[in-house]
């Protein structure tokens, strides 16, 4: 018998493999698990060259996986942009920009994100734009809100982009004040008017951003993620890194079809879909496409069955980006090619129309086509939950805000308290037999750390302890249920189930060693979990 390269023993190993849920040791050769034991009886695997790690009864589980993120853009922001806060008021936002003026080289745009959507009404005031212009002068400045669906730009940026009062944008809008002047606020795909003229990053900066994203994930025990809106430029970047042996994660890239988050010049839509196979590698999956059906409730761009109530007594009922027939016409040919589609849908109308479109696809192409997903599902109608599993639709739940928090409060202001507080029916979705996965939506949340979100799935409490109370405790999951949502379920959703997602013989040796036993502590304490070591294909890619 050939000897193992690596043996871990004296551990509490939660494998996510129903054939052997718990183990105490495993062996690894050539980056894959070759033996797993419920006892420490792998001596036959140990030779003179074998590295043996005594875990001292530490808790080990498969590498976690993030079903929905914008990792490249988030890491770039970490390295090169202004970090704003959901607690900011207008003066705090301006103060952050002023500090960035000295830190960011003068030949670069000032870019940042993270201001709260509740500031929209304040930012519309002419004196706020004037204050931003006075501060930044001719230096173009763009600041996205925490959802990244709204942008506040200074006059220099608007001027360079050629944005005018007459611009009309499909699935977006250029905001104007009552006198017709530009407020600097752009909604949804109107953000692309400015994005298209922002200078491209250097290749070195792009590589640094991608490697920073993967390194940060590895430090948190994560060994795979779904990049939720990807340009061809970014897809090629991950692919190149994998071919060079530098990508330490499994990545699924959802090709963007709009300019909300991804500039057209970087490669989106049909042409990129047609070229996707050139970027497929062992660790990069490319058969995914992303659509947006609506926006977010706080900006009143999410699509609901019942209208928003406005401050002046009027109502607003924004439609979804596509009718169900239009979305069907976009998904149907992709489904024929075996491409999985991810659809952003937050409001109950957008979700229902998406399900209607997928149902038409199933009727036309047959029910055994690729598994599509709906991202967010925040306000799904109770009657539509059972349709998810019936149509083989994955519930892609993110961002992890299923506890009392300011965004839910802002949603309640826009929707009314009863409707605004009736979100995140996660327990009902899982109980209905829906394939369900967990994402962070980083940078919508400021960190890709999965442990707070995992904790709050179980407690429905704020893992940061800043907000009090429990949000819809009847929708809480058990720890066993929650762990599946960020391991084996995501691996299956990414098409890598045979390769990773559980600790089983033949799979890639992707695992994390933790500082605590998740089954021996209070669920609230899961939020503070620290990773001692992360391994990808048997290689230690992070050691605390």
Count every helix, treating DSSP H or I runs of 4 or more residues as helices.
18
- Radius of gyration, whole Å: 23 Å
> Would you report the number of β strands?
26
Name the beta content range.
Answer: 15-25%
By CATH, the topology of the largest domain is TIM Barrel
CATH class of the largest domain: Alpha Beta
Strands ordered across the widest β-sheet: 8-15-16-17-20-21-22-23
Shape: globular
Proportion of residues in helical segments:
25-40%
Structurally, the number of domains stands at 2
How far apart the termini lie comes to 34 Å
Q: Note poorly predicted spans.
A: none
Query: Considering the protein shown, what is the CATH homologous superfamily of the largest domain?
Result: Metal-dependent hydrolases
Largest sheet: 8 strands, parallel
CATH architecture of the largest domain: Alpha-Beta Barrel
Mean pLDDT: 94
Structural class: alpha/beta
List keywords for this structure.
2 domains, alpha/beta, 31% helix, Diaminopimelate Epimerase, Chain A, domain 1, six-stranded mixed beta sheet, eight-stranded parallel beta sheet, 18 helices, 544 residues, TIM Barrel
